[in-house]
Design a protein that fits this description.
By secondary structure, the protein is α+β, with helices and mostly antiparallel strands. It folds into four domains: 1-55 and 273-417, no CATH class; 70-257, no CATH class; 425-452 and 681-813, no CATH class; 469-665, no CATH class. Helices cover 50% and strands 16% of the residues. The strands form four sheets. Strands 1, 2, 3, 4, 12 and 13 form a six-stranded antiparallel beta sheet that branches. A six-stranded mixed barrel has the order 5-6-11-8-10-9. A six-stranded mixed barrel has the order 16-17-22-19-21-20. α13 (419-451) crosses α22, α20 packs antiparallel against α22 and α20 (682-716) packs parallel to α23. The longest helix is centred in the middle third of the chain and has 37 residues, at 320-356. Residues 108-114 and 408-417 have low confidence and may be disordered.
């Protein structure tokens, strides 16, 4: 123990004695440790942490398996069958997979003092909270009879909604609130950490038995494995259930079912986030390896300068093992200092990093810098301290004591200095940086491809807002259309407004699919994208008219039923025939046939990556009341305003004019179409920016490493260079010699890194669009960039070498 403490004291003195070396090494490593700690916290929080439910590992989701192997929602009949006959999991819970929109305000007594709010809620079976294993913090959950058809109107609130809308008043339990103008009794409030699966603001009872005969596949089914059962047991039980279901209901298996899939709920929640997060973690690990390589060749150079010291210590009786321990102690102590600095960087930047995470990444509200991140950083610190300290420590075993003593006496100079080891480290840094830069380059090319796509609508100078028109007052098309007309008239009168319209949903956001039947199809139906729009929608959104006409004010409820289709619809259903004049019917909700009066340009409806689906546009005033009720339940009414100036300058006016018509209609989510367009590629922008930032950091570290090695080599070879110049070498020859050596190390790194990158980019193929994983432009441009950066990094020490005075150099030696 005494000798160990002596090693620590000596190592501390050596680090203090060389502040420049210590600061450089700590900064390089701290950046690597800090980035790894922050990214590990995100990866761990999303991928490895259990869900916030008791015994969360036992929770599964049961889905109907499609022919392609993907899981999809179940029908009420599926749920009822599984509930009665499952062996490997307890009685499952179900929720209606269509999230409902609810206006929450006041109480049944009409108290609107707290204002109105638009929230989202799910209808769930009575055992939903019991299956997840979480009891309400206040009140109770649902009773078994409350999910029966015609049961009482009750609701359970989330902690967030309870706090925001009702001031965390415990007296709300047992009281009444208005949901879409209908009184509901609050029976419970959930704990603060409970979000539900999926996350929700409130929960209502699901009368699932009334839907058993409907045949709609709209239910998310959750279950808990029975004691001792495994996921494999549950899957085997599900296979048995599928066979029995086919026998019992042969008429209900014509929907493309191919089985039942049982998945860990954690895997379902993570979804597609696993791959990009692991890619990000790999990228930041490469940055740390490069930082370690940088510090390793700093230590190698320092060890070469300490040959004399080590030789003296060996001559005085120190064993080589003792020297190895001392050098490792110094490197580990250096790593620990860097690790503490890295943790400070991670804690300082973590909240900002989480705020940058794109929408759609799961579990972001659960992310914390916790003890796991500290433990991971500590373990990483110790491992890397040994790793980058090993090369100079092992080198002490091969030390020539006689030459070292001459060095210490000033009568000799050891020129080797681990030159081969430092060259290997630099080439390794270049190879690792090349892999990161190529990955970042592919993501940049993907982002360029996405931003170059014409979405088919205007993204600039267009303001949008959501109006939640739910409840009995807006249960009919006439009522909604009256509100819409009045609002459009008021907004159209505002200065700076070019066109105003409304729509049931916007491009790049939540879709609405309904089946249609073309005249002459004889009961054959196919689902298409369905949009309710007012007459100036195409003008406000600048969607091109290809044939026929757009809607106008005459397309009212009493006028002949019309529809506009997009080019994708015309191609799919009419081919080379003229779409104008064709007739179709919207299945299940309409009993009249619509005539196609126009064809408009295609619009990227779901995402920029996906081609436009077949879409029909129906005038808002001609929608059946049933469609209006469906839209109001799940989709807010969207106002669209084309403006002459800054669209957001009119945001307050939209709220004011809407409130003047009906103050009970909440106006939310006021955004520009430019913001919506940007949000659709936010994930690609995030991964590109973060991985690109790490790649640039890796490039900088590699350049610093190459500069340091080249500068050290020039300093060690001063006599050699002076002798060459004395024998006739010119400054240009010295420049070519020094830069050539640096480029040789870089070229070796590029030669190693290219095949590695060629294989590694396959792992990010799922993040790419419009560019191959082996894009020639990226695989050619990045190596050229590396060589250019290497030339710049070597230029300063090369110019210094070219200015060496031969006589001064020879006299010094």
């Amino acid at each position: 123990m005494h000798s160990f403490l002596q090693d620590i004291r000596f190592a501390s003195r050596m680090l203090v004695k060389n502040p420049g070396f210590t600061a450089t090494a700590v900064i390089c490593l701290a950046l690597g440790f800090g980035a790894n700690a922050a990214i590990f916290s995100i990866v761990s929080g999303v991928l490895m942490s259990p869900l916030p439910y008791p015994d969360a590992g036992d929770l599964v989701q049961v889905q109907v398996r499609s022919p392609d192997g993907a899981g999809r929602k179940a029908s009420a009949l599926n749920y009822e069958f599984w509930r009665r006959r499952a062996h490997a999991f307890d009685e499952p819970a179900a929720l209606d997979g269509m999230v409902g929109g609810y206006n929450v305000h006041g109480t049944s007594a009409g108290d609107d003092a707290l204002g109105a709010a638009r929230v989202h809620g799910y209808m769930v079976t009575a055992n939903y909270f019991e299956v997840l294993g979480v009891a309400p913090a206040h009140g109770r959950g649902f009773l078994p009879t409350e999910d029966d058809p015609g049961g009482p109107r009750v609701v359970v609130l989330s902690h967030g909604l309870w706090s925001r809308q009702f001031g965390a008043d415990p007296g709300i339990v047992g009281g009444s609130v208005l949901l879409n103008d209908v009184p509901h009794t609050v029976v419970g409030v959930m704990p603060a950490r409970f979000r539900g699966q999926p996350a929700s603001d409130l929960w209502l009872p699901l009368p699932w038995e009334a839907q058993v005969g409907s045949g709609t596949y709209n239910y998310v089914v959750l279950a808990r494995l029975r004691s001792g059962a495994t996921l494999a047991d549950a899957q085997a039980d599900a296979d048995r259930l599928y066979g029995e279901f086919i026998e019992a209901h042969p008429d209900r298996t014509s929907h493309g079912d191919s089985g039942i899939a049982v998945s860990s709920l954690l895997d379902v929640v993570i979804g597609d986030a696993r791959q990009p997060l692991l890619v990000l973690f790999a990228a930041v690990a490469l940055v740390l390896l490069i930082a370690c390589a940088n510090v390793a060749h700093l230590l190698l150079a320092r060890a070469a300068d300490r040959n004399g010291e080590m030789a003296v210590r060996i001559a005085l009786g120190a064993s080589r093992g003792r020297l190895l321990r001392q050098l490792l102690t110094e490197s580990v102590l250096l790593a620990l200092l860097s690790g503490m600095a890295g943790l400070l960087i991670a804690m300082w930047s973590f909240d900002a990093l989480v705020a940058m995470l794109p929408d759609g990444l799961p579990r972001t509200d659960e992310l914390r810098m916790d003890a796991r991140a500290v433990g991971f950083t500590l373990a990483l610190t110790l491992a890397t301290g040994v790793l980058f300290g090993l090369a100079p420590a092992v080198r002490s075993f091969g030390l020539d004591v006689i030459r070292g003593l001459k060095d210490s006496a000033g009568r000799g100079r050891t020129f080797s200095g681990g030159r081969l080891g430092r060259g290997v480290l630099v080439s390794s840094e270049v190879a690792l940086s090349l892999v990161l830069l190529i990955g970042a380059g592919l993501l940049v090319r993907t982002f360029q491809q996405l931003t170059a796509i014409d979405p088919g609508f205007a993204t600039r100078q267009v303001l949008t807002a959501q109006l939640s028109m739910t409840g009995g007052r807006y249960a009919t098309t006439d009522a909604v259309d009256e509100f819409r007309r009045r609002l459009e008239q008021r907004l159209d009168a505002l200065p700076g407004v070019r066109a105003v319209a409304t729509a049931s949903n916007l491009p790049l956001e939540q879709p609405l699919n309904l089946p249609i039947s073309l005249e002459g199809w004889q009961d054959r139906m196919q689902a298409v994208e369905y949009r309710l729009v007012s007459d100036r929608y195409f003008q406000a959104m600048e969607i091109a008219l290809r044939a026929g006409r757009v809607f106008d004010a005459t397309d009212a409820a009493s006028a002949p039923a019309v529809v506009i289709v997009n080019e994708a619809f015309a191609r799919q259903f009419f081919g080379d025939d003229d779409a104008i004049g064709q007739r179709l019917t919207v299945g299940f909700v309409e009993d009249r046939t619509r005539e196609v009066v126009g064809v408009v340009g295609d619009v990227r409806a779901f995402s920029l990556k996906e081609e436009s689906p077949a879409t029909i546009y129906v005038p808002t005033g001609q929608a059946p009341d049933g469609i209006t009720q469906i839209v109001n339940s799940f989709l807010p009414l969207h106002v669209v305003m084309s403006t002459e100036g800054d669209p957001l300058a009119l945001a307050a006016a939209v709220r004011r004019e809407s409130a003047a018509i009906d103050p009970a209609v909440p106006v939310t989510n006021v955004r520009t179409m430019e913001q919506i367009h940007g949000a659709s590629i936010a994930q690609q922008r995030f991964w590109m920016g973060l991985i690109g930032g790490f790649a640039l950091l890796a490039l900088l570290l590699s350049a610093i490493g190459l500069y340091g090695v080249t500068s050290y080599a020039v300093a060690r070879r001063t006599r050699d260079i002076g002798l060459r110049m004395a024998l006739g070498a010119r400054a240009g020859d010295v420049l070519r010699l020094v830069i050539g050596q640096g480029l040789k190390m870089t070229a070796i790194g590029v030669a190693i890194g290219l095949p590695v990158a060629f294989g590694a980019t396959r792992f990010i193929a799922g993040l790419l669009y419009g560019v191959g994983a082996t894009d020639p432009a990226v695989f050619t441009g990045i190596p050229l960039l590396m060589l250019a950066v290497a030339t710049v990094a070597c230029l300063v020490p090369a110019r210094r070498a070219a200015r060496i005075d031969p006589m001064t150099a020879l006299r010094t030696e």
